[in-house]
Amino acid sequence: MTMKKLYIETVGCQMNLLDSELVVASLRKEGYELTPSTADADTVLFNTCSVRQHAEDKIYSALGRLKNAKREMPDKVIGVMGCMAQKDQRLIFQRAPYVDLVVGPGQLHQVPELVRQARENPGEQRLEVSLGRKDGAVDSIKRSHESFDPLRDPSMRPTPFQAYVRIQIGCDKFCTYCIVPSVRGPEQSRPPSQIVAEARQLVSEGCKEITLLGQTVNSWRHTEDGRAWRFSDLLYALHEVDGLERLRFVTSYPKDMTDDVLEAIRDLPKCVKYLHVPAQHGSDEQLKLMKRGYTIAEYREMHDRAKRWMPDVAVTSDFIVGFSGETEEQFQMTMDLVRECRFKNSFIFKYSERPGTKSADRLPDDVPDEVKKRRNNELLALQNEISEEDNQRFLGQRVEVLVEGPSKKQPQREEGDPAVQLMGRTMCDRIVVFDGNPRQIGQTMPIAIYDANAHTMFGAVVTEHVTPEVVPLAVPTQA
Ligand code: SAH
Ligand code: SF4
Ligand code: F3S
Prior knowledge:
There is one protein chain. This protein folds into three domains: about 5-140, Rossmann fold; about 155-390, pyruvate-formate lyase- activating enzyme (Alpha-Beta Horseshoe), CATH 3.80.30; about 400-460. About 35% of the residues lie in helices and about 20% in strands. The strands form six sheets. The protein has a six-stranded parallel beta sheet, with helices on both faces. It has a five-stranded mixed beta barrel with strand order 17-18-19-21-20. Strands 7-10-13 form a three-stranded parallel beta sheet, sandwiched between helices. It is an alpha/beta fold. Its EC number is 2.8.4.3. Keywords: 4Fe-4S, Cytoplasm, Iron, Iron-sulfur, Metal-binding, S-adenosyl-L-methionine, Transferase, tRNA processing.
């Protein structure tokens, strides 16, 4: 069989990374192999994100670049999947008439069939998306968004010892700026029996680290066979899986960081001591306009509680700058919060108005772009300073690193030097690079840290010298 070639480009969050992994796996079964260039691909797929305008622009320009390629190779199948497919639907065909497929995040299981149909019937465009949040009965809307979690094929994962496991789809929080609830649909939790079974299967195939995925992962709850499960119960159940070494989860919602969740993380050794709990802003007025559902006092209380119970826990956040009406004073309150909480790191975004959201309908996007940029840079500079100081606390210390693979930038080496620069993460999600041997990928290694900047710590493998015990042959007798 001649292999068909698939080019896939993914933007957006971990949900999209997982979706792409599953789509690639399903197409590999159909005889596809990956190619890094669109030029020789039979099928070109984009897995898209709508969270900010920039993410959409990137995909529309990539599509623009394919116009001529499609003219020259009309049987190249071009598909747009994911959140922008759900949001823009037919608009994608209008803007790029040579696109063959538009497939929402709830229809990804259909991709192999849709690609086959597109190949057999060139020129026929296909649109497969979920119902909008007001387009029918709740149950049918929910069903139309059900996600794509087929049984895994271990050889298809990018790294065999790490895996994402989706525990929740959609979101019901409706923060006023956010498009996710409308493109990913209502919040739905997967049953614990399915999650645990998937984890067991992954671990039996060599997986050591599982990352649970959900937009507000700690809000997960599910009643199964009469038992009401909370997120903490799920953590305890997964912790029992023999062979699992690390249990991570993203993203947490501040208000749902209840005592039982923190207790579970503290008490379960396999749980990474890392919480991504976006605060979004430092001012109560802005939080209210964003409809985040908590005050800064409540966020601070949650943060203090986490730090009190787990002094080594690493907390990270997301922030939006330049949201509707943000004054300089309010922006400075975000700066104050970052100074006070000293996050391990923060992801900072300039507010991007998303059509169809509450804030687009009701609140002016009135902070000028230069101001957004300046605030973004100011906050980033502060966060970098904190991150660097925070990482430097590790100088001279020994950390346990799960080795993920070669680091992105390999240093120049003398000829014949077999060392490779590897990267991995600590239990508190800090990135460590060190010289090692590819054999060490997938292992947990002791690393001594000798340097650190805001984003990376540099270290060396600790070689344990086992001093042979000197056993005296004859105990001298005391005279
Ligand atoms: N579910 C997660 C985050 C999902 S989106 C949570 O609730 O925290 C990831 C991040 O993108 C958000 O935390 C927010 O900081 C940012 N974001 C979402 N919508 C945005 C918008 N319209 N403009 C700018 N940033 C946005
Ligand atoms: Fe968006 Fe808010 Fe839901 Fe996060 S919690 S996905 S920011 S609506
Ligand atoms: Fe983007 Fe969709 Fe994730 S909008 S952030 S890819 S859920």
